[in-house]
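Hey,

Quick one before I head out. I ran the complex with MRU overnight. Inputs first:
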Amino acid sequence: MRTIAWEDGTVVTIDQTKLPNTIEFLSMKNCEEVSSAIKEMRLRGAPLIGVAAAYGLALTAYHSKAKEKEELLRELEGSSNLLRRTRPTAVNLFWAVNRVLKRAKDATGDVKALVKVVVSEAQKMAEEDVEINRRIGEHGSKLIENGDIILTHCNAGSLATVDYGTALGVIRTAWRQGKHIRVVATETRPALQGTRLTAFELKRDGIPVTLITDSTVGYAMSKGLVKKVFVGADRIVRDAVINKIGTYTIAVLAHEHGIPFYVAAPTSTFDLTHASKQITIEERSSKEVTNIGSQRIAPEGVDVLNPAFDIAPIKYVSAIISETGVLSTTEFEKLTLNR
Ligand code: MRU
């Protein structure tokens, strides 16, 4: 089932804050609603955020009363700025907004033609995302053998994309090929994407999964309970992979235990123009740490540090799997130099 869809001027998605207990659909009629959904993590995951942003611009175009092209372009610029302020780390958001804006600016014809261009570009990006994930799955599944126990972090599944998933797409493909595998899913504090979303997706597909707390990773690896790691990414810069908080710890532990650490991400997640120290790591509300659900656990007034992502230096990465194939880090670094 698709995570996001365009239905004649409305964008429909699953409210991920309610999963897995309630499957509630969210209908968004304008870019402000899309921006809020991204900010509040009702929809999340780098590729999905990108496609949602493109759809946000499609909503602006579709419902616009602009009579002149210039007026509509100004409205699209306004919506783009709103989207850019939602979450700073996943590069797919900026990539998607820039791609749609460029398409809009290059479009010829009248306002009606421009609306059509923007809406169809967003739809094209959604279709492409599904196809890209399938290809990532095909390439990455070659790295999986019978008997593998694969650790994954956060949720890089169909809920983080339009459909299928990146890291979970690889696992899904291997499973469909008949490989006997097991997954170890980390809970992923503080928003619990592993507990609520990854475990939900894997159970739904019948793929064996064991849920662990984030702090169990070292124990599980030291006991030989993990053979490979597959994670997604929010941004892959020249020197590092930026992904959900906890990824760096997992990468270092994998290195210590001689466990391959693979990153699966579309090329739209590559940001070859930046190095990790130039990237803004999103800091989220302290409530995510002081509370469990609506219940406060921490004492009032305690200081909290709550970065949503961390930075795993490229030296810890065994390979990067994208829609173009499996890249060694040397190949990735060459890609960087060629730009
Ligand atoms: O804060 P989130 O839930 O948006 O973070 C998501 C992740 O960190 C994923 O691993 C990443 O976006 C890749 S999803 C295919």
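The mean pLDDT is 97.

Talk tomorrow,
K.
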